[in-house]
Amino acid sequence: MKGIKRFFDDAFKDAVKKMVPILADCGDDFELKYQCNLPCPGCGDKTGSGLFYRISNKKVWLQDGDTMKCSVCRDREAFKNYQDKSLKELISSVGERLTKEYFFLPESLKNPGFNNYQETNNITAGAKERAVSFTKTFLASTDACHNLLIMGNPGTGKTHLCAAIARNIKQKGFTVGFLTTGKLLSMIRETYQKEPAKTESEILRDITRLDLLILDDVGSEAKGGNDDWRKGIFFEIVESRSGKPTIYTSNLTDVDLPVAVGKRVYSRLHDNTQFIDLFTEDYRENLRIK
Question: What is the pLDDT of residues 119-156, one digit of tens each?
C-alpha cells in the first residue's frame, strides 16, 4: 500500500511541477498540501479550496493560482454558461430562419455596395452620404438608430442603397429583412388559406424580431383589391416595427404616398424618420445601348 501511495504522490508532484515553473528546479525538495475551508470567490463562504506548496528550505506556504470556487458556485457557473450557449444557439437559429424567410435581395443586386453606387449629381451624392451615415449609426448602436424613408422616381438607386445598407449590416451578424411591401402583404394574405404554414400574428412577430427591416417599393401594391384591408395591415406592420430601425422606399411623391398607404400610416412613417429625396434623372437611361 505504501508503494502505491508513493507512486501517486510522485505522480502528483510531477504534475504540479508542470503547473508551477518555480518547482521545476527543486527536484523533489518541496511539500504540497490541498487546503479547504478557504473563502469561496463566488459566494464568500468558507467552502473554497486551493493548492499550496512550500520549498523545503522555506517556512512560508505559497498558494498556486487562485482559490477554487465551491462546488455549488461551479455548478451555477456551468449552468449559466450552458444557458448562454443555448441562448446564442437559439438566437443564431432564429436569425437563420428569419433571413431565409424574409430576405429577398433582387438578383441584379447580389453584390451591391456603396462604392459601386452611381453618384450622378448632388442629389444622389447626398442620398449615398445619408445611407452611409445610417449604416454607421446602426452598427454603433441600434438603440440610437432612426428610420429612413427614401422617396424618388424609378432608376435613381433607392434599392441599390438599401441593398448596400443591408449587406454591410448583415455581414456584422444582424438579422435583416429585405422584401417589397407587396411581397409581405402577399405572405400575410396566404395565411388566410386553409391550414396555412404561418399565421398572420406569427408573421408580424417575425417582423418585430428583425434587427432591421427594409420594405422596398411602398405604395406600388395599391392597385385594386381590398384597399381598407391593405391599409389596415400595412398600419399593423408599421406599428410592429415601432422602436426598431426600418427603411422604406417609394416611387411616389409626398402627395401621392399618403393616398396610397393612408394618412394614418403616412403619419406613422414620420416617427423618428429621416426622409431622403431621390427625385432626379433615371441613371438607367444612360445604360441603354445606342
Answer: 889 999 999 999 999 999 999 988 878 999 999 999 89
- The CA distance from 179 to 165, in Å, is 14
What ranges make up the beta strands (E) of 112-238? 147-151, 176-180, 212-216
Residues 32 and 125 in one domain: no
Predicted confidence band of residue 290 (pLDDT cuts 50, 70, 90): very low
Of the residues 69, 95, 122, which one is the last residue of a structural domain?
A: 69
For residue 200, what is the domain's CATH number? 3.40.50.300
Our count of domains for the chain comes to 2
- Structural domain including 10 reads 2-69
**Burial of 261 per CB tally in 10 Å (0-12, 13-18, 19+):** buried
Per-residue model confidence as pLDDT tens digits over 45-97: 999 999 888 887 788 888 888 898 988 888 888 888 777 777 677 667 778 89
- Provide the β-strand partners of residue 35: 50
Q: Indicate whether 11 and 121 sit together in one domain.
A: no
| pTM exceeds 0.85 | no
Q: What are the distances in angstroms from CA 208 to CA 58, 175, 243, 246, 273?
A: 66, 11, 10, 10, 17
User: What residues contact residue 214 under an 8 Å CB cut-off, 6+ apart?
Assistant: 162, 165, 166, 176, 177, 178, 179, 246, 247, 249
C-alpha cell at 267: 403619419
Q: Per the structure block, which three cell numbers stand in for 185?
A: 402583404
Cα radius of gyration (the chain):
31
Would you say 62 and 88 are in contact if contact means Cβ atoms under 8 Å apart?
Answer: no
Q: What is the pLDDT of residue 188?
A: 93
